[in-house]
Design goal:
The chain crosses the membrane at residues 21-45. By secondary structure, this protein is an alpha+beta fold. Strand 13 (276-283) and strand 14 (289-295) form a beta hairpin.
């Protein structure tokens, strides 16, 4: 009984239980609150939860970032014509899945294979049969593409395809670079390639060669950024960084001279198939390169031919120049006081340390003066001059003319060359351009000293860089004297000797005469080394010529090289003269016109006007219109709007519809080249001067890509 009572008295009352429970609940709540406080404090301090940055997450929720891509700058000729500019290209694809429809239920897939194949074969470089086969193979697939034929499609072609309203064809737009002139100083202008932007799915065009690479920073510009932040009922706030489009680059290239040079180079290259060939026309008083090209070359728009030659031969290839080097030998001997006009030397062969220096005519010409030796291109005469000067003096002048240093052109992979100058025979060899490796750009720089009163100029190919938004010029090139290796008097004497090469009966450069103009020139023939020995045979030489005009005070320098052509009995000089005379004469005539007091006119934009109105306006302005076609309106003109030209100058106007051949008699080579370029004809010329005969008679219908041959006299 007592035990039972004791047990009953030890039980807790409900009140006590509630108190204990309340205490546990209180302490539990404090613990939970403490944990939450710590957690919230951590979040408040670190701004992170579950590994997520809350500030960034919130910003993304209420903020939209947009990158505004900078437009790449345009590259222009000296005349203001675009050579390289931004554009869009398209890739075409066909949806084959028959369940693909738009919101309105319209079919997005190919419904008629035959109709689609017909459209594709009409506007793309793909046959109807191949297009149809590709579509049929695509049955059951979601979508198909058409290989290279369906890529890099222009906006014009895209719009033509869309206008056919066949279902199932769609396009993907891509940023691209347009090179409207095709083959046009391609290695100098260069190319771009598409590269991925870091931490982005976007791509950007980046220069990969030529001016596109050398001026990539200026052309690229800087992308902008647009940030839109939403702020509740207060709307949105826009901020960011303004886009800066790339600067525009203006080259020194003359549109007409470059087009003419490309035409003549192509004709000669097709004729003799040289391994390599270069030609450059330079302003002798400024160093500006007015026209330059090479073979092999490529079409910058289609990339056709690029695989044959990636290198820019102007600066990336070195070679032994041969007898054009004698210009510097003669200059060095005269300037150093080691030239005696009365001394005569035996010719044919000359032994130095039991090694033979041969003339191209190993029988020689008897004892001759150095002046006659220069005109005859005697190696022996030049070797005697080098021996008279001494190796130390001669090497000093080689360096003075910049033949052992970079031209600092800014172009990628520029070479500086090499020289073998240890032994007396090697030192003598360099006097006639063997045993020394140079670039064409180095030779051009050295030649400026001869043409510019002893002052050597820096060659350049960009005249200015402008801001596309403000139109302000941010860079302007100026003629830069980089040395004076010889005196003005010496330069004049060398020019006199170079005239002997052209006008003396025994000179090697008689082929380079131009009627009405005095020419100074030096020809060259160098054996080509295969690395260990010199190659042999009729086609184992590098032929070259440097010409300056007008000879007394040159305005222009032209330098041409032609490596290992297949001559088949023809003359390398005649082939190079065909290029030299045509381009140099055009340059001289343009210069003469600009300096004469003949009235000048500013060319109007006649495109879009009726044929009658355009012809009348052209005559009233003082130019001579030549209408090609019988259409109702003008669609093309040979001279760009705004160009200043001489009164009475010929201007070709092409109408819509069928084109008809005009009478080309009396036209200059450059005018015919402009005409062919405008109409799309494939031109072949024979001779120099003015048109005497044409393969397509006047009045006959003509079409683009048709061949035209003209004889000049």
């Amino acid at each position: 009984m007592n035990n039972k009572k004791q047990r009953m008295t030890s039980k807790r009352s409900p009140k006590q239980n509630r108190r204990i429970f309340g205490q546990w609940l209180f302490f539990g709540a404090i613990l939970v609150f403490g944990v939450l406080s710590i957690r919230f404090s951590y979040i408040a301090i670190t701004h992170r939860a579950n590994g997520v940055n809350l500030v960034s997450a919130t910003k993304k929720l209420y903020t939209t970032d947009q990158t505004i891509t900078a437009k790449r700058g345009t590259i222009y000729t000296a005349n203001g014509d675009p050579i390289a500019e931004d554009t869009s290209t398209y890739t075409i694809y066909a949806i084959m899945a028959k369940n693909q429809k738009d919101a309105n239920g319209k079919a997005l897939y190919v419904k008629n294979n035959l109709a689609v194949a017909k459209v594709l074969s009409k506007y793309l470089p793909i046959s109807y049969k191949k297009a149809l086969a590709t579509l049929q193979k695509g049955t059951g697939k979601f979508q198909i593409e058409f290989g290279t034929a369906g890529k890099n499609i222009s906006l014009t072609t895209k719009e033509k395809i869309q206008a056919q309203k066949v279902s199932g064809l769609h396009f993907i737009e891509s940023e691209a670079r347009l090179y409207p002139n095709g083959t046009f100083a391609s290695h100098l202008i260069g190319l771009t390639s598409s590269k991925a932007v870091k931490d982005s799915e976007a791509t950007r065009l980046t220069g990969s060669m030529g001016i596109e690479l050398a001026f990539n920073k200026q052309l690229s510009g800087t992308d902008g950024r647009k940030t839109v932040t939403k702020s509740g009922y207060q709307g949105s706030v826009t901020s960011g960084k303004k886009v800066k489009d790339g600067d525009n680059v203006y080259t020194t290239i003359d549109s007409k001279l470059q087009t003419l040079l490309e035409t003549k180079m192509a004709a000669v290259a097709d004729k003799v198939n040289p391994k390599t060939m270069t030609a450059t026309l330079m302003n002798a008083k400024t160093g500006a390169i007015l026209a330059t090209t090479q073979r092999p070359t490529f079409n910058a728009q289609t990339k056709s031919g690029l695989s044959k030659m990636w290198r820019n031969l102007l600066v990336e290839d070195t070679y032994e120049p041969g007898s054009t080097m004698k210009v510097f030998t003669m200059a060095a001997a005269i300037n150093s006081g080691n030239y005696n006009a009365n001394v005569t030397v035996p010719t044919g062969t000359y032994k130095i340390d039991n090694k033979v220096v041969p003339d191209w005519n190993t029988s020689g010409w008897g004892n001759i003066t150095y002046a006659k030796g220069f005109a005859l291109s005697s190696n022996v005469a030049m070797a005697h001059l080098e021996q008279t000067m001494g190796a130390k003096t001669w090497l000093k002048y080689i360096k003075r003319f910049g033949l052992r240093s970079s031209t600092n052109s800014g172009l990628a992979n520029e070479q500086t060359g090499s020289i073998q100058f240890t032994y007396p025979i090697e030192q003598a060899d360099t006097s006639f351009g063997q045993g020394i490796q140079i670039t064409a750009m180095q030779m051009l720089r050295g030649f400026t000293a001869i043409a510019n009163h002893g002052k050597m100029l820096q060659p350049y190919f960009v005249s200015k860089v402008t801001n596309p938004n403000t139109h302000k010029t941010v860079y302007r090139a100026k003629p830069k004297v980089v040395g004076q290796p010889i005196s003005s008097k010496t330069a004049s004497q060398v020019l006199s000797h170079m005239q002997d090469v052209v006008y003396k009966s025994y000179g090697t450069g008689t082929a380079y005469k131009i009627s009405g103009y005095r020419i100074a020139a030096k020809t060259g023939t160098a054996q080509v080394s295969n690395g260990s020995t010199y190659e042999t045979g009729d086609d184992s030489y590098l032929y070259s010529v440097v010409g300056m005009a007008p000879a007394k005070n040159p305005k222009y320098i032209m330098y041409i090289t032609m490596k290992q052509p297949t001559l088949n009995g023809t003359s390398a000089s005649d082939d190079m003269a065909e290029i030299f005379k045509t381009v140099m004469q055009r340059a001289l005539e343009e210069q003469k016109a600009s300096e004469s007091k003949t009235a000048t006119v500013k060319m109007q934009d006649l495109t879009g006007k009726s044929t009658t109105a355009a012809e009348k306006a052209a005559k009233q302005s003082g130019v001579k219109p030549v209408v090609v076609g019988k259409g109702s309106r003008i669609v093309k003109q040979s001279i760009s709007s705004g160009t200043v030209l001489s009164s009475g100058q010929r201007v070709v106007l092409v109408t819509n519809g069928q084109m008809y051949m005009p009478n080309l008699t009396g036209w200059s080579a450059s005018e015919v080249a402009d005409f062919a370029d405008l109409t799309g004809l494939k031109l072949a010329t024979n001779g120099t001067g003015y048109v005497k005969a044409q393969s397509v008679s006047a009045g006959n219908p003509i079409d683009a890509k048709e061949s035209l041959s003209v004889t000049l006299k």
